[in-house]
């Protein structure tokens, strides 16, 4: 069965960095675009970034552009999100999901990122 397991969340100070990972299993990872979505406390889901199956296309929301970098290692079936210059408003549960703006069909359980001094 399809499984997506996020890791790497935690507490960071404003201006700090974190690297999230998402290990995929149960499907041909290299055949799918992948997406990061986040949900801040008490708010709705917010699309963050997406990457095409061979990394040839990458998209970012305006809120994270220039600070976050999405990447993937198809040999390791792993999706990454490098987050720099973190802000308190980046505090959220971060989910990886299979798919892109046409649709997301499988989601991980999420990893919590807290940005606070």
Description:
By secondary structure, the protein is mainly beta. It has strands at 3-7, 10-12, 18-25, 34-39, 45-51, 58-60, 68-73, 78-83, 92-100, 103-107, 111-115. The strands form 2 sheets. Strands 2, 4, 5, 6, 9, 10 and 11 form a 7-stranded mixed sheet that branches.
Portion in beta strands: over 45%
User: How far apart are the first and last residues' alpha carbons, in Å?
Assistant: 40 Å
Low-confidence stretches: none
Largest sheet: 7 strands, mixed
- Total helices: the number is 0
> Averaged pLDDT, please?
97
Helix content: under 10%
Rounded to an integer in angstroms, the radius of gyration calculated over CA atoms is 13 Å
The SSE order reads: EEEEEEEEEEE
Structural class: mainly beta
Shape: globular
List how many beta strands DSSP finds: 11
Write the layout of secondary structure elements.
Elements: E1 3-7, E2 10-12, E3 18-25, E4 34-39, E5 45-51, E6 58-60, E7 68-73, E8 78-83, E9 92-100, E10 103-107, E11 111-115
Parallel strand pairs: 2-11
Antiparallel strand pairs: 1-3, 3-8, 4-5, 4-9, 5-6, 7-8, 9-10, 9-11
